[in-house]
Write a structure and sequence with these properties.
The protein is built from 14 helices and 17 strands. By secondary structure, the protein is α/β, with parallel strands linked by helices. It has two domains: about 130 residues, Aspartate Aminotransferase, domain 1; about 270 residues, Type I PLP-dependent aspartate aminotransferase-like (Major domain) (Aspartate Aminotransferase, domain 2, 3-Layer(aba) Sandwich). The strands form five sheets. The protein has a seven-stranded mixed sheet with strand order 6-12-11-10-9-7-8, with helices on both faces. The structure holds pyridoxal-5'-phosphate. The site of pyridoxal-5'-phosphate has 12 residues, from helix 5 and helix 6.
Length: about 425
């Protein structure tokens, strides 16, 4: 499509957008008396208006039923988490029994590592991307140390090439083949948090499994953003948080995936708790753990229902719309944002560099040359909520559920004023 950098054109795109009515399903923070232009749905998604009702229902049930709420709430608490598996299975391309919801992302990765990082004398290495999200780095290092190994030897980082801002799939595959039968695990962020790159998860998973390793994905920036086919890709395990593209609220319950091929393996090492045992016999308080032969067997504790409720509320929105429509709008609004950036770049003679490679989801990472931080501060003052990363990168993620094309146009106008004001 040929884009135009005008208000009329942006408004025409909004009028033709079948998702535009969902903007009104979310609460927007206000700045200078207007909705902000929100580019940080990759960090904390906006609050859906329907979330309050889901939380209130739990509070009311607790008030009125107390312990009886476990079984007699309208949505009983004892199996509340099971309601999230259906919608999530569609989002990540899984079977329902491959999904569970519990804890938070880093905690779940630790639990999954118990099952899927079982180093032996020969096979003990982990491949990840260089400069992975810090929490993932700490998680991997501490897991390796826990097994009495040296993180410097066991963790192998795939580097970007000199002068490039992205990882090449062939370099990841080459590293996998190189480490070969010493490789215990590949664990990479499916969408990189910094440059917005979408890894070729299918190819990398195949390569890892070919050399006999387990392959897992951290989907913090991928779930609810890009197309995923975890089951068909033969991924061993995955985990994601729910508060970024999935709008569940700060720190709320997180999702995990374990491939069907591992679900009947009762010998798989796992840290267990009473919520992972068969629910029919859970309250008989038997001494033996009985696997559910589903990802729910990774459940440990009685989950926080107050944290599941907002996730369920947000998932009803995903279920209504479906990933294909979200992805279609995402592609189009990100393309329009890129166009607007290029127009402003030309008009102001700046040199913005989009470092997000072509395989991309919702996020554009823009490398600024010159006084990036003061420009960023100008944007914030003028109602643009974006994200600043050292040394000079602004991350912009126009979440397709609630961002409009007019937002992209208005952002361009603010950006232009900000750049010209600096000259
Ligand atoms: C956001 C994010 C996290 C956050 O982990 P929590 O346990 O939810 O605090 C971890 N890893 C990646 C790659 C992320 O993007």
């Amino acid at each position: 499509m040929l884009f135009q950098n005008t208000l009329e054109f942006a408004q025409k795109l909004d009028a033709e957008d079948e998702l535009s009515r969902y903007r009104d399903a979310f609460h927007f923070p206000q700045s200078n008396g207007k909705d902000v232009i929100y580019f940080t749905g990759n960090s904390l998604g906006l609050q859906p208006k329907r979330t309050q009702e889901y939380i209130d229902a739990v509070m009311t049930n607790w008030k009125e039923l107390a312990v009886e709420g476990h079984f007699h709430s309208k949505k009983p608490w004892w199996d509340y988490h099971e309601r999230l598996a259906g919608p999530l299975a569609k989002i990540v391309g899984a079977k329902e029994k491959e999904i569970s919801v519990m804890n938070t992302l880093t905690a779940n990765l630790h639990f999954l590592m118990v099952s899927f990082y079982r180093p032996t004398k020969k096979r003990f290495k982990i491949i990840c991307e260089e400069k992975a999200f810090p929490s993932d780095q700490y998680m991997l290092q501490s897991q390796v140390s826990f097994h009495g190994l040296n993180p410097k030897e066991a963790i192998v980082e795939v580097k970007k090439r000199d002068g490039e801002h992205f990882w090449r799939t062939e370099d990841v595959v080459a590293k996998i083949n190189d480490v070969g039968d010493e490789l215990a695990l590949v664990l990479i962020g499916g969408v990189n948090y910094y440059n917005g790159q979408v890894f070729d998860m299918e190819t990398i998973t195949k390569a890892g499994k070919n050399v006999g390793a387990f392959v897992g994905w951290d989907l913090a920036h991928a779930a609810g953003n890009v197309e995923l086919k975890l089951h068909d890709w033969d991924v061993d395990f995955a985990a994601w948080c729910s508060y970024k593209y999935m709008n569940s609220g700060p720190g709320n319950a997180a999702g995990l995936f374990v491939h069907e091929q591992h679900l009947d393996d009762d010998a798989i090492p796992r840290f267990e708790g009473w919520w992972g045992t068969k629910k029919e016999t859970r309250f008989l308080m038997k001494p033996e753990f009985e696997s559910t032969n589903s990802a729910d067997s990774w459940q440990v504790s009685n989950p926080s229902v107050l944290s599941l409720a907002p996730y369920l509320a947000a998932l009803t929105l995903f279920d209504e719309v479906g990933m294909p429509k979200l992805i279609k709008k995402r592609n189009s609004i990100v393309a329009y944002l890129e166009f607007v950036l290029q127009e402003v770049d030309k008009e102001t003679n700046s040199s913005f560099e989009i470092i997000t490679p072509k395989g991309r989801g919702c996020q554009l990472s823009v490398l600024l040359h010159g006084e990036g931080k003061s420009l960023f501060n100008y944007l914030t003052k003028n109602g643009v909520i974006a994200d600043w990363r050292e040394p000079n990168v602004i991350r912009l993620a126009p979440a397709p559920f609630y961002c409009s094309y007019e937002d992209m146009y208005s952002f361009g106008q603010i950006l232009k004023k900000g750049v010209l004001g600096q000259l």
